[in-house]
Write a structure and sequence with these properties.
The complex is a heterotetramer of chains A (about 250), B (about 400), C (about 300) and D (about 425). Chain C has about 300 residues and is mainly α. Helix content of chain C is about 75%, strand content about 0%. In chain C, a hairpin with a 5-residue loop joins strand 1 and strand 2. The longest helix of chain C is centred in the N-terminal third of the chain and has 38 residues. Chain C starts with a helix and ends in a 12-residue tail after the last helix. In chain D, strands 6, 7, 8, 9, 10, 11, 12, 13 and 14 form a nine-stranded mixed beta sheet that branches. Chain D has a five-stranded parallel beta sheet with strand order 2-1-3-4-5, with helices on both faces. The longest helix of chain D is centred in the N-terminal third of the chain and has 28 residues. The chains are: A alpha/beta (about 250), B mainly alpha (about 400), C mainly alpha (about 300), D alpha/beta (about 425). Chain C: It is found in: Cell inner membrane.
Chain lengths: ~250, ~400, ~300, ~425
């Protein structure tokens, strides 16, 4: 294990222990242990069906665990509501861009501003200067500063991916989870996204699922390989790539 | 002022509202006789339900097939108060037990049931008209939306609730007047509601309340909550994982729709002079959905036009061609759903605007349909057109 | 002692009554379970397809009575088959003209089929008149079988029961033992994939819908032995039927059977102890309460999404 | 839904224009009629020297259309016959027909239209109690006149309504007496659809059984309208073994009830059954063979053997086809126009107050049911008959009472 020193000194932001979920007897995630530190960019890779997306689902509460625990900043997520998990500081991007096609880019971002989240809060929500500034800042970050009034459904695929990342940034989460953020992006867009991720990972932890190895190399601090719902290997990109078990199940063929 | 303007949906919204207000508050009272005006008043009580349906079905994606339940609850609360007032010991002295409603006397009830007692108070009644239906909607909504019941399930469950309430009302004849309903309502706080002048005043009160509901609806739709509703229709998961309690928002619009329906029901009892289980059941509930569908499920004003038009058509055709009426109603339903999912408002948006010469703004081509096969609506288009100007710092 | 044996006999007959209500509910719900459960389509006109079956039987009964009275004892079997074909054929057309355009909008299907049910009701009224009509069931279907002196079992109840078992079995076989059933189930699970592997999903949809309507027609034919036929007869059944399917958990045929059984027994038992109206309210309320607590119905499969 | 219908602003003026035009037409015609009014019409009714307008208000559509069709036909037949014989006070009767569409508020609305806009001299209409209750306040407020044909629960008496059907005590008491006497019945099972008429009727029946006949009611059950499953009920009947099943099941439930009774082996050889709600109309749907040998209590049966009835049946069949049947309510509806004619001629005026004042004591010797007379309480004196169901869908009259006084508020039965 050649993990970068320094990270292990702190208590991990996210601590997954013994996590198990089964669907009618099939264990999609099986006794999984995973720790993510503050300011870390962690990439999870693994062949299809390894349980990567299920892990994200479990963390953000979309799927309920059969057993085990997920501790986020000392709070147990497995018992919490989805929206409470989000409010606790976990943001999640879905595999396919999940944005509101009928709203403008501005409104998409505004929706994620962490105020007016209750029914009556939303009813009396006001577009304050703070909201405008935050939206503009995030929009600039995600390369959409000029397209605020564009209807989101008309954006390109890559721009939609960015927009969804931007929506997460609006929430200012401490743990950012991205499911295949560069899928369907052009080479230059990938580079831009890598740059974006490196910028936004300051002050928060990022958990990424990705297949594109070049992209993984350019962002990952540490890589975890999942196979059949279990951790197969964990460490730096190099160590993982040279791990014979990993080569056998994933990279080898 | 600017905020108000925005709330009403920009210039177009204000104009639309003014046209409807002129029609209802000026044109109808001036051109229709007392009888027809009372009929329009009755139609407008259905418009409350339709407006509520626009909120919860059009925007919230929740198709309730049991809005008659709330209409009925509101109506029954009001009717109970009016009936008690009409059943003073003096005018019921021929009964074996004077002072109780006549149908109770026929059912050998000798004492006013406890359920009825609080309805001696007008304040209580007005509160009950609002609170009871909202409470019921809250229970149903919390139970179903918290557990993420699918839209179709929700429709069927609400339908069953409408059925239960109908059977219950009919079965508890001594308490509710059974299938005949509560009839022969005469006065409200001593004021004869059957006279032409009273009917005229009630018509305006009714219209005023309706516009109140519409404005409240517009306020909701133009708030962040309105955008959240649309966002939920698009990507419910995304909204949930942006930290929102999706179920709470659904419960809220459902309760608002229930409240609107109940107000409509209470006004119905006042204007028509009775209430019966035939407004509670499945058939009236679904008919009210037609009103919203014909007017345009995404348009609050459209719902009012839809209610007026369908009911006018119903009266007209059932008078002239009773045989054709059901064909027409069914055909209208099928046609609207299949070909004009946005109803009159959608047609107006896609054809009317163009036709109305002198409109300078570009047709809303940049807006994709809110749902497959659904054309944009004024509300949507206006918001799109209005918001960009304001959000630039 | 005599009282006790009599009570036993009534209990037995009441048990049979529960079974017979169960069969009626199941027979009604089968067609819907196929259409709603397998296709996700809400067919509010389902009751009217039932009525089509009933009217078909009525017409055949009248024809037989006029032209060949000797057929009277046997015509009922033809009537059932014909009802299946007629209702199925109309269902086929409806799917083609209407439903197929609305698959991506389930709530709109609900509304459109409601409109269709209004049109169909008026059509029945125009064709057959507003009055209730009554098919003449064959003589061997009427009356009761005496198991003992005290226990009498209505024959039409037995017949409906047999028919229900037959239909349920047939549908099970079709869905789980034939290639067509495989296609249906594949289409339900993944429409795009099914199309990709060469299943004609449009055809599968159309056949499924037609089958569901055909089954409703059979139910309608069977019900002429226990009830009357009028233009609005079908609408009486629709809510009950939907509740059975929803209560059972939509995609599960087994769930439909279980829920029909549960609802029928509750209804039948409570009717014995209270007025029919209150029994109905009680039964529906129990169903709704359970649905409020367990909205996915009794049997819903867990699926990894 | 074409391009003409371009939106609210364009549509409504059209609608309004049409509406105003129609209204002014109506107003003009009403006005012209008013100027021609004479002393036979001092209250502005739609009466001209040659014509008098009356309203007909039944359900032509909806669930009740099945039942109300017969009444519509009978009233038209009577009016045609009156017109053919010279009309009323030299005037031909013109009918404005409105559809209540089986919907109570629609009834109230149409009643108002008939009285206020059409200014009809009288209305023949309604069928269910609910529709009557809905229109009653309208008739009382606008001072209209309604002829109501259905046998009903009583407990009502209005200046503005003439009830041409029987009230509950007329229909129930004599028949219970008869069945207790001829069948020696002591135990009764009461069954009804769940609404006011069966419930009130059963209440009266229970009081009579317990207080007068000194029998017992061993069961009482109500089922929702439209219910089609009677298995449990039939088992309860089998358990209780009543001497008489006393039934008031209506509509579609009727057919299911009797078919299932027969299928369960409960036929007239094993069980005596007396119903209040099966006329020849209902028998068409049920099938005579399914009810053979059961009894119905009515004031009129199509098979009544008297010259008036022969003429009525013949005329009805000539007009509406030889397969048509006439039930109790159809006959009562037929009486309406004739009773009105007699009252108008006695009053010499169409004015509602005068017609109402003239009504008590009006006799009709030509009624198909025989002789009827309007009581002070606006109900009819009539006879009650028991009919035994025949396989061909007709009734054999097995009992005929004396003329019974109507008593809508029966002391001791409430």
């Amino acid at each position: 294990m050649t993990s970068p020193t320094g990270f292990q000194m702190n208590k991990p932001v996210l601590a997954i222990e013994g996590l198990t979920v089964s669907f009618d007897g099939f264990k999609a995630v099986d006794d999984l242990n995973l720790y993510i530190d503050r300011n870390e960019v962690r990439v999870v890779i693994g062949p299809n069906g390894a349980g990567k997306t299920t892990v994200l689902d479990l963390i953000c509460g979309k799927t309920r665990a059969t057993g085990g625990s997920i501790q986020f900043k000392d709070r147990e997520l497995t018992k919490m509501n989805e929206y409470d998990i989000v409010r606790a500081g976990v943001g999640r991007k879905f595999q396919t861009p999940s944005i509101y096609d009928n709203l403008s880019v501005f409104e998409n971002l505004e929706m994620s501003f962490p105020a007016g989240r209750s029914v009556f809060g939303a009813l009396f929500f006001k577009r304050t200067q703070a909201v405008l500034e935050r939206v503009n800042q995030v929009a600039a970050d995600i390369f959409l500063g000029d397209l605020l009034q564009q209807q989101a459904g008309l954006l390109s695929h890559g721009q939609k991916q960015w927009l969804e990342i931007g929506m997460l940034l609006m929430q200012d989460p401490e743990l950012l989870m991205l499911d295949e953020p560069v899928a369907g992006m052009s080479v230059s867009e990938r580079a831009q996204t890598a740059d974006l991720l490196n910028r936004i990972s300051q002050g928060r932890s990022v958990l990424v699922i990705e297949h594109d190895m070049e992209f993984v190399k350019s962002i990952a601090h540490k890589v975890t390989v999942l196979h059949q719902g279990k951790v197969l290997a964990e460490g730096s990109m190099e160590s993982v790539q040279n791990n014979p078990k990993v080569i056998e199940v994933y990279l080898g063929h | 002022m600017n905020a108000l303007n925005k709330m009403l949906g920009g210039r177009q919204g204000v104009v639309g509202l003014l046209i409807l207000a002129t029609l209802i508050l000026v044109v109808f009272p001036l051109t229709l006789d007392a009888f027809r005006l009372n009929m329009v008043g009755k139609y407008l009580t259905y418009a409350f339900v339709a407006v509520g349906l626009v909120l919860c079905w059009g925007y919230g994606g929740i198709l309730s097939l049991g809005q008659g339940v709330f209409f009925g609850l509101g109506g029954y609360c009001m009717a109970m108060f009016l009936k008690l007032e009409a059943s003073d010991p003096e005018s019921t002295k021929i009964q074996s037990t004077p002072g109780i409603p006549d149908f109770m006397d026929w059912n050998q009830i000798t004492e006013l049931p406890w359920l009825w007692v609080p309805f001696h108070s007008f304040t209580f009644t007005v509160m009950a008209v609002i609170v009871l239906p909202v409470l019921l909607a809250l229970i149903i909504g919390v139970a179903l939306f918290r557990r993420r019941v699918g839209d179709v399930y929700f429709s069927i469950v609400t339908q069953a609730i409408a059925l239960i309430l109908t059977v219950l009302i009919i079965g508890q004849q001594g308490l509710t007047g059974g299938i005949n309903g509560i009839t022969d309502l005469k006065t409200l706080l001593g004021w004869d509601i059957r006279s032409d002048s009273a009917r005229l005043l009630l018509y305006f009160i009714n219209a005023g309340l309706l516009f109140g509901c519409i404005l409240f609806g517009k306020f909701i739709l133009n708030s962040k909550l309105g955008r959240l509703l649309m966002a939920m229709r698009d990507k419910e998961e995304r909204v949930r994982f942006s930290g929102y309690d999706v179920a709470a928002f659904k419960v809220f619009v459902y309760c608002v729709a229930a409240c609107f329906s109940a107000i409509g029901g209470a006004m119905f009892a006042l204007q028509v002079g009775f209430m019966s289980p035939s407004f509670v059941g499945i058939v009236p509930s679904i008919e009210m959905v037609i009103f919203a569908a014909v007017g345009g499920r995404m348009s609050l004003l459209g719902a009012v036009y839809g209610s007026l038009l369908v009911n006018y058509g119903k009266t007209y055709f059932s008078e002239s061609f009773p045989e054709l009426w059901l064909y027409l109603m069914g055909g209208l339903f099928i046609a609207v759903v299949m070909y004009f999912p946005n109803g009159l408002a959608g047609l107006w948006e896609s054809h009317g605007r163009k036709w109305l010469s002198g409109v300078t703004r570009k047709p809303a081509t940049v807006i994709a349909s809110p749902a497959p096969g659904i054309t944009p609506t004024p509300a949507l288009a206006d918001k799109k057109a209005a918001s960009p100007l304001e959000i630039q710092p | 002692m005599e009282w006790l044996s009599e009570f036993g006999a009534i209990a037995a007959m009441q048990g049979f009554n529960g079974l017979s209500v169960f069969c009626v509910l199941l027979l009604m719900a089968l067609g819907l379970a196929i259409i709603f459960g397998q296709m996700g389509v809400i067919n509010m006109a389902h009751g009217e397809f039932l009525t089509i079956g009933a009217y078909t039987t009525y017409m055949l009964s009248t024809l037989v009575q006029t032209w060949c009275p000797w057929m009277q004892p046997y015509y009922f079997f033809f009537a059932i088959a014909l009802s299946f074909v007629v209702a199925g054929a109309i269902g086929w057309v409806v799917e083609w003209v209407m439903i197929s355009r609305l698959y991506h909008r389930p709530l709109d299907t609900l509304l459109a089929t409601w409109g269709l049910s209004l049109v169909m009701q008026q059509a029945f009224r125009s064709i057959f008149g507003a009055r209730e009509v009554s098919a003449n069931p064959p003589e061997w279907l009427m009356g009761a079988v005496n198991l003992t002196d005290a226990i009498e079992i209505p024959r039409n109840g037995l017949f409906v029961m047999g028919l229900t078992v037959l239909m349920t079995g047939g549908i099970f076989l079709m869905l789980y033992r034939t290639r067509w059933g495989l296609h249906v189930r594949a289409t339900v699970q993944n429409r795009i994939m099914s199309r990709a592997v060469g299943i004609n999903t449009r055809k599968v949809d159309r056949m499924t819908f037609a089958l569901g309507c055909g089954v409703a027609g059979v139910a309608g034919a069977a019900f002429t032995t226990i009830g009357s036929t009028g233009p609005t007869a079908g609408s009486l059944y629709i809510v009950d039927t939907f509740l059975v399917v929803v209560f059972g958990g939509a995609a599960s045929l087994f769930g439909t059977i279980a829920s029909a059984f549960a609802i029928a027994q509750t209804q039948s038992l409570s009717e014995f102890f209270m007025s029919g109206s209150m029994a109905k309210v009680l039964t529906l309320s129990i169903v709704i309460l359970i649905l409020l607590m367990r909205p996915q119905g009794l049997f819903a499969s867990k699926v990894r999404k | 839904m074409d391009s003409r219908l371009t939106g609210p602003t364009r549509f409504f003026p059209r609608r309004l224009a049409l509406g105003t035009a129609a209204l002014s037409l109506i107003a003009a015609s009403v006005f012209s009629q008013m100027t021609l009014a004479d002393d036979a019409n001092t209250t502005g009714l739609a009466v001209t020297p040659t014509e008098v307008t009356v309203g007909q208000l039944h359900s032509a559509t909806g669930t009740m259309a099945i039942s109300e069709t017969g009444s519509i036909q009978a009233e038209r037949l009577a009016i045609d016959q009156i017109n053919a014989s010279g009309g009323i006070l030299g005037r031909q009767i013109k009918i404005v027909q409105e559809d209540g569409a089986s919907d109570w508020p629609t009834f109230a609305e149409k009643a108002r239209k008939l009285l206020v806009n059409d200014k009809v001299a009288t209305v023949f209409g309604c069928w269910t109690s609910a529709s009557r209750k809905a229109v009653l306040p309208v008739f009382e407020k606008e001072n209209g006149l309604l002829y109501y044909p259905t046998f009903y629960e009583g407990l009502e008496q209005s200046k503005n309504v003439i009830y041409t059907g029987q009230e509950a005590t007329q229909q129930i008491l004599a028949s219970l007496d008869w069945i207790a006497k001829t069948k020696g019945a002591k135990t009764f099972y009461l069954i009804g659809s769940d609404y006011i008429w069966p419930r009130t009727s059963m209440k009266i029946a229970r009081k009579h059984i317990e207080n007068v006949l000194h029998g017992t009611v061993v069961g009482e059950d109500y089922y929702p309208l439209g219910n089609t499953q009677f298995g449990s009920l039939i088992n309860k009947v089998k358990l209780k073994k009543p001497d008489v099943v006393f039934a008031a099941v209506v509509g579609g439930s009727n057919v299911a009830f009797y078919k299932q009774l027969k299928a369960a082996g409960v036929d007239s050889t094993k069980q005596t059954l007396l119903t209040l709600s099966v006329t020849e109309d209902e028998l068409l749907g049920i099938g005579g063979e399914n009810m053979k040998g059961f009894y119905a209590s009515m004031k009129y049966f199509q098979s009544l053997d008297n010259p008036n009835n022969k003429a009525f049946v013949e005329a009805f069949k000539a007009k509406y086809g030889k397969d048509s049947v006439m039930g109790d309510v159809t006959q009562a509806a037929y009486l309406g126009p004739w009773l009105w004619k007699a009252a108008v001629e006695k009053a010499g005026s169409f004015d509602v107050d005068k017609v109402v004042a003239a009504s008590p004591g009006i006799e009709l010797k030509t009624a198909p049911e025989g002789y009827v007379k309007i009581h002070e309480n606006h109900h009819l004196w009539s006879k009650t008959r028991i009919g035994e169901v025949q396989a061909d869908g007709q009734f054999k009259v097995v009992y005929e009472s004396e003329l019974i006084e109507p008593n809508p508020f029966p002391k001791g039965y409430q």
